């Protein structure tokens, strides 16, 4: 039987991973994502090049290190919704709460970080993949919640609408950040935009997947 890794060893691995990500992101913001090499990241983080690639098989995931949190965010919100709450109501509630706490998962990442993303074709492409994966995860969760048949397209159609709404709102956060808007102004604008967006979806989706 293989022994489980010790808590101390797991903590050390998490710290090493975070340190590599932090160093890489700093270099990316200073010099641009495309120009920084894995070897330079390893040297700056004081680790071997192989250590970097072991933790991050894809270079872009050093910058977009909230992948798992981002991709699973909508599905988790739906899975954790309250009794009597619809999928739409849960997602509305969580989005407005995320705006209030200035959550980086919905785009509150600061001007240097946002500029790093939008100026990199690699990072923008990877972010599009994340949006697609998030929508797929939401579709799977909705299908489970409503006990849909395998060939039922409705959960995918609902997920497409909800995913698109979040994608548009995320893009709006980035746009306003790039425009140099004050953080409080961005939050106020996103709260209003989110409310109006979810209001538009309410007639069609407000009664879907009520727990």
TrEMBL record:
Keyword terms of this UniProt record: DNA-binding, Transcription, Transcription regulation
Keyword DNA-binding tagged: yes
InterPro entries xref list: Homeodomain-like_sf, HTH-type_TetR-like_transc_reg, HTH_TetR, MftR_C
Descriptive protein name: DNA-binding transcriptional regulator, AcrR family
Molecular functions (GO terms): DNA-binding transcription factor activity; transcription cis-regulatory region binding
The keyword Calcium belongs to this UniProt entry's keyword annotation: no
Pfam families recorded: TetR_C_14, TetR_N
Residues of the DNA-binding region: 37-56
Domain HTH tetR-type: 14-74
Highest classification ranks of the organism: Bacteria, Bacillati, Actinomycetota, Actinomycetes, Micromonosporales
Signal sequence region: none
């Amino acid at each position: 039987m293989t022994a489980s890794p010790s808590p101390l060893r797991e903590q050390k691995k998490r710290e090493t991973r975070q340190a590599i990500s932090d160093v890489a992101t700093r270099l990316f913001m200073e010099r641009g994502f495309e120009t920084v090499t894995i070897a330079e990241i390893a040297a700056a983080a004081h680790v071997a090049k192989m250590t970097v690639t072991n933790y991050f098989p894809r270079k872009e995931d050093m910058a977009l290190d909230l992948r798992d949190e981002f991709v699973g965010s909508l599905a988790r919100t739906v899975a954790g919704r309250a009794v009597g709450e619809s999928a739409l109501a849960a997602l509305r509630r969580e989005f407005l709460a995320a705006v209030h706490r200035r959550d980086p998962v919905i785009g509150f990442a600061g001007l240097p970080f946002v500029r790093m993303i939008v100026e990199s074709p690699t990072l923008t492409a990877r972010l599009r993949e994340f949006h697609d994966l998030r929508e797929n995860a939401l579709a799977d969760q909705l299908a489970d919640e409503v006990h849909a048949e395998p060939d039922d397209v409705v959960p995918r159609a609902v997920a497409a609408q909800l995913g698109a709404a979040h994608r548009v709102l995320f893009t709006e956060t980035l746009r306003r950040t790039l425009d140099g808007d004050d953080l409080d102004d961005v939050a106020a604008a996103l709260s209003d935009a989110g409310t109006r967006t979810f209001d538009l979806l309410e007639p069609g989706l407000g009664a879907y997947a009520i727990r």
